[in-house]
């Protein structure tokens, strides 16, 4: 049986590409990578996609030549070596696009080895390290007058005595990077009482965590500014939208998103990115707090986020803007953002619906309103159907 992603054969295909500088997308696992590839496909470009397993949905797009490579956490040097082999086959320097913090860390630490072969859509490691530190994000936000949730770092159970008793329930999240997720297998934990939190910190090996107040309101209060910022600190493309639903509920990833205007978060986001000395693609997320009518900073992600393809479908092609700006090409035609368009990731949304039904919290009318047209799908596209079939096959395999 032919190996679809045989490196020798795929490198030969890459060498034969007859186009401008080749985009290289990592990781090519899910919809965020697929959105980059399709966005760049609007420029007539085929991308190289690299994933650490052969079942990445984005590897099956018509816009990609796929490769399977080392995992950036387990073998970063092996991944860099693969990128160098790819780079040597390119006619001109490629352009790197990243969708995951682990890849950001690995590649930003090895820029010197990659620089002869690639242009970068992300800054140096020291900038990313500062950006990934939520304490620094909140400190700089406070300096700029951007509202933030009440937060406090703790490293051991004894530290939580300083957290006010009236501030429960409380969120617990990582201070920086993916360490918290790899440690606790969740992006965020919620504790209703001090005793629960003390028990968790006492039982688990100590890593720094951040306690944060739980802002009232549902996921529809989570707003995003998606921005491409160049090295000169100019915001060349800006998108605004919000989540309507996510899975798992309250603290999961987006399953229904909406394009809408939110001018109140645009300039503060640009100011914060400049203060962080960041350039590239970012998502700056806020939660609207009805108690005081302010948008409060949740986090800054220095990469493409899961549902960024809604920006492209709404007329703000962030990947194309970054590609053209970095290469000094004419920027894509700027059109007003299309508001009201929704982005649907139905498999996980249906899982959330089933959970809501089991918990007795499902409201059919509300759900129908959130999925009412106009909308686009996260994976399915008539002109690029294979990723959808791959997603279906993966789902059926898991069920079996």
Automatic annotation (TrEMBL):
Signal sequence range: none
Molecular function GO labels: ATP binding; ligase activity; metal ion binding
Keyword ATP-binding found: yes
Tree of life domain: Bacteria
Keywords carried by this UniProt record: ATP-binding, Ligase, Nucleotide-binding
SUPFAM superfamilies, per database record: Glutathione synthetase ATP-binding domain-like
Gene3D superfamilies given in the database record: ATP-grasp fold, B domain
Name of the protein in its database record: Putative ATP-grasp superfamily ATP-dependent carboligase
């Amino acid at each position: 049986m032919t190996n679809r992603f045989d490196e020798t054969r795929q490198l030969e295909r890459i060498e034969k590409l007859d186009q401008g500088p080749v985009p290289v997308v990592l990781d090519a696992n899910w919809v965020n990578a697929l959105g980059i590839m399709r966005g760049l496909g609007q420029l007539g470009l085929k991308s190289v996609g690299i994933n650490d397993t052969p079942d990445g949905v984005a590897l099956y797009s018509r816009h990609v030549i796929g490769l399977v490579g080392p995992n950036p956490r387990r073998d970063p040097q092996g991944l860099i070596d693969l990128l160098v082999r790819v780079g040597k086959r390119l006619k001109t320097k490629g352009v790197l696009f990243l969708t995951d913090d682990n890849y950001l860390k690995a590649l930003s630490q090895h820029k010197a080895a990659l620089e002869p072969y690639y242009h970068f859509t992300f800054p140096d490691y020291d900038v990313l390290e500062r950006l990934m530190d939520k304490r620094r994000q909140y400190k700089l936000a406070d300096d700029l007058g951007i509202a933030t949730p009440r937060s406090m770092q703790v490293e051991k159970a004894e530290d939580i005595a300083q957290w006010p008793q009236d501030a429960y329930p409380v969120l617990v999240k990582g201070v920086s990077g993916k360490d918290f997720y790899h440690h606790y297998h969740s992006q965020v934990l919620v504790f209703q009482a001090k005793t629960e939190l003390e028990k968790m910190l006492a039982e688990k090996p100590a890593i720094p965590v951040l306690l944060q107040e739980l802002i009232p309101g549902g996921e529809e209060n989570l707003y995003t500014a998606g921005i491409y910022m160049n090295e000169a600190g100019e915001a060349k493309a800006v998108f605004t939208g919000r989540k309507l639903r996510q899975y798992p509920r309250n603290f999961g990833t987006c399953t229904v998103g909406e394009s809408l205007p939110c001018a109140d978060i645009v300039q503060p986001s640009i100011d914060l990115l400049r203060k962080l000395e960041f350039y590239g693609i970012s998502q700056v997320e806020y939660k609207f707090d009805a108690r005081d009518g302010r948008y409060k900073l949740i986090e800054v992600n220095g990469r493409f986020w899961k549902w960024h393809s809604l920006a492209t479908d709404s007329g703000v092609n962030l990947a194309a803007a970054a590609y053209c700006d970095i290469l000094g090409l004419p920027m894509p035609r700027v059109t007003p953002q299309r508001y009201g368009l929704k982005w649907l990731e139905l498999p996980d949304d249906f899982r959330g619906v089933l959970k809501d039904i089991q918990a007795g919290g499902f409201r059919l009318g509300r759900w129908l309103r959130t999925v009412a047209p106009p909308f686009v799908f996260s994976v399915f596209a008539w002109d690029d159907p294979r990723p959808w079939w791959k997603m279906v096959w993966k789902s059926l395999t898991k069920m079996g």
